[in-house]
User: Fold these one by one.
Assistant:
Number 1:
Amino acid sequence: MAAVLHDTAAGEASREADLRRRDRTRLLSLHAQRPSWSRALLLLLLVAGPGMLVMLGDNDAGGVITYATTGARYGVGFFVPFLILMVPVAYLVQEMTVRLGAVSQKGHAELIFDRFGRFWGWFAMADLVVGNVLTLVTEFIGMAAGLSIFGVPLTAAVLGSACLVAALAAIQRYMTAERITLGLAALNLVFLPLALRAHPSAAAIAAALAHWTLPGGLTNGVLFLIIANVGTTIAPWMLFYQQGATVDKGLTPRDIRQGKTDTLVGSVVMGIVAVAIVVLTGTVLFPRGIAVSGLSAAQWAQTLQPFLGTTAARLFGLGLFEAGLVAAVTISLSSAWAVGEVTGRTHSLNAPLRQAPLFYGVYGGSIAAAAAVVLMPHAPLQLITLTVQVVATLLMPPALVFLLLLANDREIMGPHRNSRATNICAGGVVAMILALSTLYGLTTLL
């Protein structure tokens, strides 16, 4: 009996290695071919995925509500240029994870564990998992709200969404799950035609870019939304997800250039969608002075419907559902990879359930916990949605410090370590987040 179990485990491990080797062989064959436009495009298409998914997953359900609230309260005068500025910030941070994963062939939590010891490895993993479950709650709020536009009851929406998120991992094949999720993520672009349907003023947007005025001064409410918008652009789970995906996909230093391009394209698309949502509500709701502070996620489409029509309201609901779905997949995977890395257990979407019970258990358990919170009677869902974005920002400084130390580690990175310019810019990002956090704390106390 023991021999049979041993042979089964060996066969499953061989299957995981074979799947990754097959994906790697396709990339190596393209690298070996004579340079051409068609070869470069095909190589990019094969490598693309981790960067696009982490960025579009970052435009999650909580992010959509945060952007919508921002535009409705303050218009386009400050936050449109601010969100454009956050695009290079997001790329700067995530580009480091591409290099770390490709060079080290280890996930982010595993590297922290190896280089800084057990305490910091477990601390980073536990901090991530707790924050991720809170964020997942907002994703299920968004998915349920999006489906409510189509008449789906809350319980059915939450349970159905949970089953769909779990089904993507049940495929047990990284490349297949990635491509399906990428297809779903394309629905993030639904906010672009909605913004155009609102007939935004080109003059107002140009004035915002030229003058960048802060609405009403640096009040506590403005600071709260600035921090929340930062939290929708860069978050700790993104570091763990993209580095884990880079490793699970089998990318190596030869793929870094394409990985950077994948991340750059994802950053730009993320920024365009974020700006579109702010422009949408900043054009439709802000000039009319419509109060949105009491709106739940489910009420956003209903608020926009009188001005844009039923079809537009349903498209908003569809976009909200997609945003929550893609983010739920990527966030759950970041938790599963981190736990597997720190514990030394198998952590791959190419592995069967028998070989990686902890990996799939963390993935499924995170989904179940978040769904259960949403189904709790009288849970403060709206407060959770906005607060989670702020918490994500407050957790970023220590995560960025670890990232910078690892990306500058000569032993790990060799010639691929950070340049001086990257370190200066990344240090500026850490300083910006610390300054915002301090200002928010002071204004709250005073």
Number 2:
Amino acid sequence: MRGMPIVLGIAGGTASGKTTVARKIVAAVHASRVAFLEQDAYYRDLSHVPIEERRQFNFDHPDAFDVEKIVAHLTTLRDGRAVDVPIYDFATHTPASQTVRVEPAPVVVIEGILVLAIEAVRKLLDLKVFVDTDDDVRVLRRIDRDVRERGRSLSSVVEQYFRTVRPMHLGFVEPSKRFADIIIPHGGSNDVAIDLVAGAVRARLPQIRGA
């Protein structure tokens, strides 16, 4: 790989469709050309905290993430070197012992709720996207995901939403929209907007690859 890669950041509220948007862009650009990171992999290790306290932790605040590691990994990928990304266990709120090797590529994509809200991460982005989805849709998706995929009870999901998710969305996630170069309404179903973003990335690939 020659030249610096494009670094694309995709942010938006919880269950807004960020991951769907990111994966559609990756597919459109071609996965072999993309190094894909999820901000959720970089939650801080809470193994030193009693389990009941972990469950009350504010996972939607910027301080919940290991920003130093995110920045280090983005910088390493930009330099053309591979990184070992943590696998986060949402049941225990700790990183698993295994990691996933992510190889450098002409395009680096990172998605997560606070990708645009954290200045140190935002400074490394060449293209900033915000996925905008109605609040009621996001809440229902969040409940469905956390109950089915993360083994949470309905009452715990609702309690967490009102205690931390909603306040942090209003305090950090929604305001970060102003940093976006492109806003995609209606989440992962907006194929027109997704195609436009993918096209903009593809148009820059020949320059990056030195063609």
